[in-house]
């Protein structure tokens, strides 16, 4: 299935710098279908154009990706030692990560590649792009909270071509990157804490991808989301469990804790997906505290 | 701690973490040579190695381990003894 020069280069570079991770990537690629490779080809085209604008190429992005993989591996070792995430304070993470353009730039570039090369990220990305088109006719006002690198935003722009789109992120670097990656001025890019956004605007659809674990009180964010949604409005929400990272604060021990929090916020779960970062059964995954990603399409009661 | 002792201890860790008493490590052993040494068990192995030798690796070091000899060498650097 490795039929593109770019993909061959990516795998070879990973192999040279992190053979163990290359082993995992090759196994992941072997299980993918033709749709994956079509999406990956499209993505790599957009990603290379995005990198070129910054005077960079895929090899630079791969260095960012490999740095991310190494950091996440070490973070997981420390997590096994302590049973908790290293960071406990939002302001410290903001100062040390979100407000550091160089760190954010490398982090987001690495995360972009992980959307295709990490099994849990790709499964959730697929879930998103396959679930959204059925809501095309009902979405006039769309909000993404925490756009990060902008990949999900790029898909929302395609799926909802006529919707008013707002994007709120606390990081100026993320907003700049999303703007550059999507090449779109259609959204309103708003740098703000979501809690400071007025509740006068009601959205048909909100995307909240991998945000809950970045705050000390995720219940508060879900309450805010509920207030921003129209009655019967939809929320696409994702959160990882047992997934230490330099900017993760709130530890979900399993997907049930995430589901419970969504339900307690007054939302019904329409459909969901839960994927471990490693290809193991759930008993072994729980025993070894393997990271996982949960995603749900939820609806406000109305 | 000398090279034989470190390798012996590493072997014991691999046997235990990978649940395979038949594994026999050499300096040149790589993940391709050991069934079950993958990204999942690597985290468990690093955790066990750090605990056993009372050392801490950096993220870059973990990424660059290509074989058992690299791990051995890094342990020895931390402990200030000879290379494997």
Reconstruct the topology from this structure.
The complex is a heterodimer of chains A (302) and B (84).
Chain A: H1 5-17, H2 19-30, H3 34-52, H4 58-82, H5 90-98, H6 101-117, H7 119-131, E1 141-145, H8 151-159, E2 164-169, H9 172-182, E3 188-191, E4 203-209, H10 218-228, E5 229-241, H11 255-264, E6 267-276, H12 282-287, E7 292-300
Parallel strand pairs in A: 1-2, 1-4, 2-3, 4-5
Antiparallel strand pairs in A: 5-7, 6-7
Helix pairs in contact in A: 1-2, 1-4, 4-6, 6-7, 6-9
Chain B: H1 3-17, H2 39-53, H3 59-64, H4 68-79
Helix pairs in contact in B: 1-2, 1-4
Explain the overall architecture:
By secondary structure, chain A is an alpha/beta fold. Chain A is 51% helix and 18% strand. In chain A, strands 3-2-1-4-5-7-6 form a seven-stranded mixed beta sheet, with helices on both faces. In chain A, α9 (172-182) links the parallel β2 (164-169) and β3. The longest helix of chain A has 25 residues, at 58-82. The mean pLDDT of chain A is 94. Chain B has 84 residues and is mostly helical. Helix content of chain B is 57%, strand content 0%. Chain B contains four helices and no strands. Chain B has helices at residues 3-17, 39-53, 59-64, 68-79. In chain B, α1 packs across α2 (39-53) and α1 crosses α4. The termini of chain B are close together. Chain A binds chain B through residues 17-21, 23-24, 66-67, 69-71, 73-74, 76-77, 80-81, 278, 280, 288, 290, and chain B through 30-32, 37-40, 42-44, 46-47, 50-51, 57-60, 62-66.
């Amino acid at each position: 299935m490795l039929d593109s020069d770019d993909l061959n280069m990516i795998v070879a570079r990973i192999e040279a710098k992190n053979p163990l991770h290359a082993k995992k990537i090759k196994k992941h690629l072997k299980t993918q279908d033709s749709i994956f490779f079509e999406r990956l080809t499209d993505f790599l085209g957009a990603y290379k154009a995005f990198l070129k604008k910054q005077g960079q190429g895929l090899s630079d992005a791969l260095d960012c990706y490999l740095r991310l993989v190494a950091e996440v591996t070490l973070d997981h070792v420390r997590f096994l030692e302590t049973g908790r995430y290293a960071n406990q304070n939002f302001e410290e993470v903001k100062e040390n990560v979100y407000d550091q353009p160089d760190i954010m730039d490398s982090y987001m570039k690495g995360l972009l590649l992980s959307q295709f090369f990490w099994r849990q990220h790709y499964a959730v990305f697929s879930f998103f792009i396959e679930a959204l088109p059925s809501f095309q006719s009902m979405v006039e006002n769309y909000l993404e909270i925490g756009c990060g690198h902008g990949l999900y935003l790029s898909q929302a722009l395609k799926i909802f071509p006529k919707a008013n789109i707002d994007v709120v992120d606390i990081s100026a670097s993320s907003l700049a990157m999303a703007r550059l990656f999507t090449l779109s001025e259609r959204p309103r890019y708003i740098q703000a804490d979501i809690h400071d956004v007025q509740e006068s605007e009601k959205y048909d659809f909100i995307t909240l991808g991998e945000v809950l674990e970045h705050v000390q009180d995720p219940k508060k964010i879900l309450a805010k989301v509920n207030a921003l949604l129209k009655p019967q409005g939809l929320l696409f929400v994702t959160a990882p469990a047992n997934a230490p990272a330099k900017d993760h604060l709130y530890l979900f021990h399993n997907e049930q804790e995430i589901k419970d929090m969504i339900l307690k916020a007054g939302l019904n779960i329409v459909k969901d997906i839960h994927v471990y970062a490693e290809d193991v059964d759930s008993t072994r995954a729980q025993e070894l505290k393997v990271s996982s990603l949960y995603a749900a399409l939820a609806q406000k009661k109305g | 701690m000398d090279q034989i002792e470190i390798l012996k201890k590493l072997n014991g860790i691999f046997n235990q973490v990978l649940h395979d008493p038949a594994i026999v490590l050499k300096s040149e052993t790589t993940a391709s040579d050991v069934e079950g040494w993958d990204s999942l068990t690597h985290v468990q192995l690093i955790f066990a190695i750090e605990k056993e030798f009372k050392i801490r690796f950096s993220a870059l070091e973990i990424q660059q381990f290509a074989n058992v000899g690299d791990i051995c060498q890094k342990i020895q650097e931390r402990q200030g003894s000879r290379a494997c």
